[in-house]
Structure formats: structure tokens, C-alpha cells
């Protein structure tokens, strides 16, 4: 019996499909959207996680082996998920096949999925030109602690309802309008008293292979480890502060936690505020796909809500963003947005929700279920391990624990590792006691996953945010100076030599001094090659990584082009690209 993923349309209730379609399948389609009414959709993409198959009836063993290999590749492209459109030709023509052939094709796809270690679920069945077309989601089964890990940064102005929407999504319980939902996600006592987030917190929502929310499947609240055990996909919400006072914490969370998507929360009653634009600007600078959630629609007059939506639409269509806003009102809109987010992200989805009445929350949950985790482009799981630390703890009975994200390679407790750089730029050998991923003990973690590492014989005060755990084969070096190609987003006057902003790049956050520019000075809107020098200690940076620099209301973005090491050597973007090509 195939797994459940969505609510079924009436078309799917006919008897030949009862083994594939349950009562709670979603009736709309990602691929077979309203364009299918014209009997044609876009051509099959060569890359990505979408595959068109006209018919899969009685293939030979050799053909079945080839199809299974192709399915594995599509699932890999979608970071553990793939969409199959049956009855659709490669040019996008929704030709359709008979019911008998469709049932046979689904049986073949089921066999392919089982061989590939995946579950499948029909999303939609629809009439084509000459017969039936169907869309099926294929999702990798969770095994040995491996699951689809998707991180979403939740940003927006203070009092816009960020923590409340996170609490509602992760608990399944509506808010009472007086802070009930947000109380479950706050980290500190003063946050409970003020109702405002001041730190970075992470909360998970598990989705099983059938598309059901694991958090809601029991009358008792489940622990993180229980949720992860039952989930094929884990959505991690990174709840960030909205107050201007905590902007450095918010920027650090967006750069250091490496989110797949950014959820910009806007209060319907207050509209788009300055901090909303600040957070959106950071997401755009990091090239992080973004969608919008307008909250408190239940308490907002229609004219005020319409004004907020119009202002938001104007911003996303402005030069520099140039996206198409789409107000999500139906499951069809959800699928259209999810398809865009999986490819070019040209559409900017806008959800109008209420955490008190539950309006449109099901559409938001469906969207989170469907969108794929971003591929770790250019990051090889076979490369030397590279783990960037974004937090440190001391756990009684365990010792020093660090939290962070794997950017490259695979790391295990048996790996030969180095920790650094210290205040002198040195790296020191370490051994790991254990590794945990979302509160689950695991043997290893790979590129793109977040984890916590228990380290032997190292005191917590010897570790700081911004340090890395790397494979000894990497022969890491820390740098005091680096050159970046930057663009000044805002500065009241001019920037010249000796200007001192705070630079953020991944988990690194430190004050720097401008030591040289390729021109006399730069102003708002200017681009330039700028050489920075860290003021306090050397750091481990990645050439090609994006950076954000700020000082007061001055803000700029850039990309690291050269790293200058103390021994006189340097590494540039061109050197790294040539090295990658030679390895391939």
C-alpha cells in the first residue's frame, strides 16, 4: 500500500486507484497545474527532481534497472524527494493513458521506489487529451538517522508573530491570542516576560514518508528524538529576533545556520516595517530563497490588510528583487509556488494566516511538505570534513559540546580532526566522544546536515563561535587579511581606509579594518575590491563565501575573492575553481 501525502480529489476515488489514493490526498498538483487544462505544461527539465514518464507498463528487467537508477538520480537532485508525472510526454504534452495502463504504471513505479529505498504517494489524477495523467511524489525512507534536513530562518519585525507561528506549526495547537503558542518556543525567562525573542532558537517539525506531520500524531507531546525517528523529512525553524537591538544576533543566525529558505513574517496590522526590509535585504544578499507569511489577519480590517499586501507586493517587484508576488489562496497556488521554489524561485509566495483561527495554516503546512531542501551546490560529501561551529555548551556527564553545520565532507567519531583557529591562528588535534543529529545519536554526519559534537579533553572556554572542526588532511590555515568584492547598500557619507565595520561570513563575526581599496573612497551603491584585516584574531574563511558588513545603519554585502595567509601565500576564487575542475 502506497504512503499518503495529500488530500485526494474526487477524480481519484474510482476503484482502480484505491490502493494508491487515500481519503486525505491533496487534490492539486505540482506539475499538473492549471496549465494542464491547455493539454501542455513546460518541457521536462534536464536537471532537478521532476521526471515525466508517458507509460511504465511491463518493462523488462534491464529496463526496470535503468528506470530505478534514473529514479535514484532524480531523488538525489531533490535532496531526497522527486516528483513523477505519468501520462505526460517529454515536451510537456498531457496526452494521458487508459486507467488500466495507469494502474500498471503505478505498480511499476512502486517497484522502482521499493528498489531505491523510497516510498511513493499519488498526489493527483487528472484527465489529459486522450486519457488519464497522474502525479506521484517519491520520498526517500528514513534509515540509520538519515533524513531530509531542511532549515528555515524565521525573520521579521518585532511583534509580527514569528515565535507564535513557529509554536503553532511545531505543536499543532492554535494560539489563544495572549501568547500561549510562543511560550513553548522561548528560551529565556525575560523573553517570556517581554514576549520578545532575543536569542537564536531552533524548533523542529517532522514529516513522515506519507506526508503526515509527526508532531501531531499523538495526544502527548513528543520529544525531538521521537519526532526524528518517525520522520522522513525534518523542518527546522530557526527563530530569530526581530528587535533592532538584536540585529547582530539575527544576522549571525542567518549567516551561521546556513538556512535553505527564509520565512519573512509580516504583521497584517503593522505592515512592512524598517526591520522587515533589513531582514529581507540580508536574505537577498545571502541568495536565500524567500517566502512571506502575513499574520494576524483575523484581527485586521480588510482595508489595512489590503494595504499591507499591496506594500509587500510592491517591494518584491522592485528592482533588485524582481519577483512575482502570488497570494496563496488554494492548494493549486501552493503547488505552483512549490514548483517555482524548486527551480528558479521567480515567484514570491505570500500566505495570509491566523495563528488564532487557523486560517490558511494547512496551506502553509502543505507548502513546507512539498518544497525540497536546497542542494549543497559545490559541496562534496567525499571532500575533507569541514564543520563550522555556531554554538558551544557544557553538558554534565558529557563535557564540552559544540553545535554547527557540516559544509563539506563526512565526519565520524573515528575521523582524524583538528579544532581551530585559536587566538594565535593555530589548529589542534581533537577526538570526538559522540555525534548527535537532532537529538539522535548517529555514527556520522555529512555535508548539509547540522549536528552537535561531544569533544574529549577540551574545555568550553577554549572554544568560541566561528571556530571549525576540520579533517587533518585539509591542512587548514587561518588568515588575518582577506580581499572581498563588496557593494555598499547604505552609508551616510563615504568609506575609506581605516573604516571599521563588523564582518559576518558563515559563523565568523568580528570587527575588521579596511586596509586598502581599489579607489579613493566608496559611497552608497558603489562596488569595489576592499581588503579587510581582522582586529583581534585570525579566522578560518572560505574563498567564494558571501559576507555582510555593518556598522550602525551602514550595511554592505560582498563575496570573498582572496585569502592572504601569514606565510605570504594566498588563495583566490580562480585557484579554487581550477582545483575543483581538476578533481572532477
TrEMBL record:
Compartment(s) = Plastid, Chloroplast
Q: Give the primary localization class.
A: plastid
What InterPro entries does the record tag this protein with? Answer: EF-Tu_GTPase, EFTu-like_2, GTPBP1-like, P-loop_NTPase, T_Tr_GTP-bd_dom, Transl_B-barrel_sf, Transl_elong_EF1A/Init_IF2_C, Transl_elong_EFTu/EF1A_C
GO molecular function of the protein, one example?
Answer: GTP binding
Presence of the UniProt keyword Nucleotide-binding in the record: yes
Q: Where is the Tr-type G domain?
A: 147-375
Pfam families membership = GTP_EFTU, GTP_EFTU_D2, GTP_EFTU_D3
Q: Which domain of life is it from?
A: Eukaryota
What GO CC annotations are associated with the protein? chloroplast
Q: Does the keyword Magnesium apply?
A: no
What keywords is this UniProt entry annotated with?
Answer: Chloroplast, Elongation factor, GTP-binding, Nucleotide-binding, Plastid, Protein biosynthesis
Describe the family membership recorded for this protein in Swiss-Prot or TrEMBL.
Answer: Belongs to the TRAFAC class translation factor GTPase superfamily. Classic translation factor GTPase family. EF-Tu/EF-1A subfamily.
- Record PANTHER family: ELONGATION FACTOR TU-RELATED, GTP-BINDING PROTEIN 1
User: Could you identify this protein by its name?
Assistant: Tr-type G domain-containing protein
Gene source species: Guillardia theta (strain CCMP2712) (Cryptophyte)
Question: What does the record give as the organism's lineage?
Answer: Eukaryota, Cryptophyceae, Pyrenomonadales, Geminigeraceae, Guillardia
Amino acid at each position: 500500500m502506497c504512503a499518503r501525502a495529500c488530500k485526494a480529489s474526487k477524480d481519484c476515488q474510482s476503484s482502480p486507484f484505491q490502493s494508491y489514493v487515500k481519503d486525505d490526498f491533496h487534490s492539486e498538483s505540482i506539475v499538473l497545474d492549471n496549465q494542464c487544462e491547455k493539454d501542455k505544461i513546460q518541457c521536462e527539465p534536464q536537471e532537478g527532481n521532476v521526471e515525466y514518464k508517458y507509460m511504465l507498463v511491463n518493462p523488462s528487467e534491464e529496463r526496470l534497472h535503468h528506470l530505478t537508477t534514473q529514479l535514484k538520480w532524480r531523488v538525489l537532485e531533490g535532496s531526497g524527494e522527486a516528483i513523477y508525472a505519468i501520462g505526460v510526454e517529454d515536451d510537456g504534452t498531457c496526452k494521458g493513458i487508459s486507467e488500466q495502463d495507469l494502474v500498471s504504471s503505478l505498480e511499476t513505479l512502486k517497484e522502482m521506489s521499493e528498489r531505491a529505498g523510497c516510498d511513493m504517494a499519488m498526489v493527483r489524477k487528472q484527465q489529459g487529451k486522450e486519457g488519464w495523467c497522474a502525479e506521484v511524489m517519491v520520498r526517500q525512507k528514513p534509515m540509520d538517522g538519515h533524513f531530509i534536513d531542511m532549515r528555515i530562518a524565521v525573520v521579521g519585525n518585532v511583534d509580527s508573530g514569528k515565535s507564535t507561528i513557529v509554536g503553532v506549526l511545531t505543536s499543532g495547537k492554535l494560539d489563544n491570542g495572549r501568547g500561549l503558542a510562543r511560550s513553548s518556543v522561548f528560551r529565556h525567562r525575560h523573553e517570556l516576560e517581554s514576549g520578545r525573542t532575543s536569542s537564536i532558537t531552533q524548533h523542529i517539525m517532522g514529516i513522515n514518508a506519507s506526508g503526515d506531520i509527526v508532531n501531531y500524531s499523538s495526544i502527548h507531546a513528543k520529544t525531538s528524538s521521537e519526532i526524528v525517528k518517525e520522520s522522513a523529512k525534518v523542518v527546522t525553524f530557526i527563530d530569530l529576533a526581530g528587535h533592532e537591538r538584536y540585529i547582530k544576533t539575527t544576522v549571525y543566525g542567518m549567516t551561521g545556520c546556513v538556512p535553505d529558505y527564509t520565512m519573512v513574517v509580516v504583521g497584517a496590522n503593522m505592515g512592512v516595517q524598517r526591520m522587515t526590509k533589513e531582514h529581507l535585504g540580508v536574505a537577498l544578499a545571502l541568495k536565500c530563497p524567500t517566502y512571506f507569511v502575513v499574520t494576524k489577519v483575523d484581527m485586521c480590517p480588510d482595508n489595512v490588510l489590503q494595504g499591507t499586501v499591496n506594500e509587500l507586493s510592491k517591494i518584491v517587484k522592485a528592482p533588485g528583487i524582481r519577483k512575482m508576488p502570488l497570494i496563496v489562496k488554494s492548494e493549486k497556488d501552493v503547488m505552483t509556488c512549490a514548483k517555482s521554489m524548486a527551480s528558479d524561485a521567480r515567484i514570491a509566495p505570500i500566505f495570509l494566516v491566523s495563528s488564532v483561527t487557523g486560517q490558511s495554516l494547512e496551506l502553509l503546512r502543505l507548502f513546507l511538505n512539498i518544497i525540497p531542501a536546497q542542494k549543497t551546490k559545490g559541496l562534496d560529501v567525499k571532500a575533507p570534513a569541514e564543520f563550522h561551529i555556531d554554538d558551544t555548551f557544557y553538558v554534565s556527564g558529557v563535557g564540552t559540546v559544540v553545535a554547527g553545520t557540516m559544509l563539506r565532507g563526512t565526519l565520524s567519531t573515528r575521523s582524524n580532526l583538528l579544532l581551530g583557529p585559536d587566538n594565535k591562528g593555530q589548529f589542534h588535534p581533537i577526538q570526538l566522544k559522540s555525534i548527535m543529529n537532532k537529538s539522535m545519536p548517529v555514527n556520522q554526519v555529512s555535508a548539509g546536515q547540522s549536528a552537535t559534537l561531544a569533544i574529549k579533553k577540551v574545555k568550553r572556554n577554549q572554544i568560541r563561535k566561528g571556530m571549525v572542526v576540520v579533517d587533518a588532511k585539509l591542512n587548514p590555515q587561518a588568515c588575518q587579511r582577506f580581499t572581498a568584492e563588496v557593494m555598499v547598500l547604505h552609508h551616510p557619507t563615504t568609506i575609506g581606509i581605516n573604516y571599521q565595520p563588523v564582518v559576518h561570513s558563515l559563523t565568523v563575526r568580528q570587527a575588521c579594518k579596511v586596509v586598502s581599496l581599489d579607489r579613493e573612497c566608496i559611497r552608497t551603491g558603489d562596488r569595489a575590491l576592499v581588503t579587510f584585516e581582522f582586529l583581534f584574531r585570525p579566522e578560518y574563511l572560505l574563498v567564494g563565501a558571501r559576507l555582510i558588513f555593518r556598522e550602525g545603519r551602514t550595511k554592505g554585502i560582498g563575496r570573498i575573492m582572496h585569502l592572504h595567509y601569514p606565510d605570504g601565500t594566498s588563495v583566490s576564487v580562480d585557484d579554487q575553481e581550477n582545483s575543483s575542475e581538476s578533481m572532477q
